[in-house]
């Protein structure tokens, strides 16, 4: 497998969904709950082993950098299978999902997201053994990113 194929498959499929329809904002809370329930699927997440690093203040919500690191050996028997990002106040809360394999080498993702407003960012990591890890951080946005 060449590097390009590895990077395409391991780094992820990131889906950015942005909707600017005002009616969508009224359903954001229900959307967040449904997204979290879909990820957890009845499992109780642990708050250890997952680090979310992002600025507490973002001048421009259109480009909020974040780094997600999971403490994992990334072996065939013990690795991260997916990392999910949810923005609790975006019109569409599901920011993206990164799919990883043991060939990823390191369970770390760097990306930039859009944040509609000041809000909480939730991150979940699914492990090959079925466990789920979670982390959260608040970000204050000076200029909303979903309207730009």
Topology:
Elements: H1 3-11, H2 22-26, H3 28-40, E1 50-53, E2 57-60, E3 64-70, E4 80-87, E5 94-99, E6 108-113, E7 119-127, E8 132-143
Parallel strand pairs: 2-8
Antiparallel strand pairs: 1-3, 3-6, 4-5, 4-7, 7-8
Helix proportion of residues, in percent?
10-25%
Number of strands: 8
Shape summary: globular
Stretches with pLDDT under 50, minimum 5 residues: 5-26
User: Count of DSSP helices?
Assistant: 3
Order of helices and strands: HHHEEEEEEEE
User: In what range is the share of β-strand residues?
Assistant: 35-45%
Kindly provide the radius of gyration, computed on alpha-carbon positions and rounded to a whole number of angstroms.
15 Å
Straight-line N-to-C gap: 39 Å
Q: Biggest β-sheet: count, sense, barrel?
A: 5 strands, mixed
Strand order of the largest sheet: 2-8-7-4-5
Q: Structural class per helix/strand content?
A: alpha+beta
Mean pLDDT: 84
């Amino acid at each position: 497998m060449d590097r390009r194929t590895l990077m395409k498959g391991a780094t992820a499929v990131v889906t950015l969904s942005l909707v600017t329809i005002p009616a969508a904002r009224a359903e954001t809370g229900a959307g967040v709950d449904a997204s979290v329930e879909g990820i957890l699927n009845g499992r109780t997440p642990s708050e250890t082993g997952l680090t979310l690093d992002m600025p507490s203040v973002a001048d421009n919500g259109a480009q909020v950098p974040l780094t997600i690191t999971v403490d994992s050996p990334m072996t065939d028997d013990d690795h991260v299978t997916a990392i999910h990002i949810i923005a609790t106040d975006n019109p569409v809360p599901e920011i993206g999902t990164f799919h990883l394999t043991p060939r990823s080498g390191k369970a770390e993702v760097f990306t930039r997201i859009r944040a509609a407003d000041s809000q909480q960012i939730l991150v979940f990591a699914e492990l090959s053994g079925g466990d789920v890890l979670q982390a959260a951080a608040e970000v204050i946005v000076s200029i909303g990113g979903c309207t730009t």
